[in-house]
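cron nightly-structures :: item 1 of 1
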Amino acid sequence: ELAGHAVYDAADGIRGLELLKVVRADVGIIDIGLPFMDGYQVARRIREQPHGRGMLLLALTGYGSLEDAQRSSEHGFDHHLIKPVDPDRLARLISESADPS
C-alpha cells in the first residue's frame, strides 16, 4: 500500500482462491505453510485459471534450500522468497512485473 498498490489479504489458501474470484490481482504473494491447503496447491489452482496464468506468483517461505526453490518453480511460482523478505527486493520484483520492457 505504501508503494501505491491495492493490497488484499486472506488468512488461508481457500479464502485466497475465493478472493481471486472477485479481485483480478496482478501479483500473488503466497506463504507455502498455509493452513488447510498449502501454498503449492494454491499456486497450482491459480495457474489453472485463465487470469492466473499471467499473474506474478511469489512464494514466501522459511524453506530455503535449492530443492525448495525448485519445488516452488515446479508448482508455478515465479520467485522463491525466503523469510524475512527484503522489502526492496520485493518492491523491485513487483515493479519489474508491471513494466515488461
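cron nightly-structures :: done
The chain has a mean pLDDT of 93.
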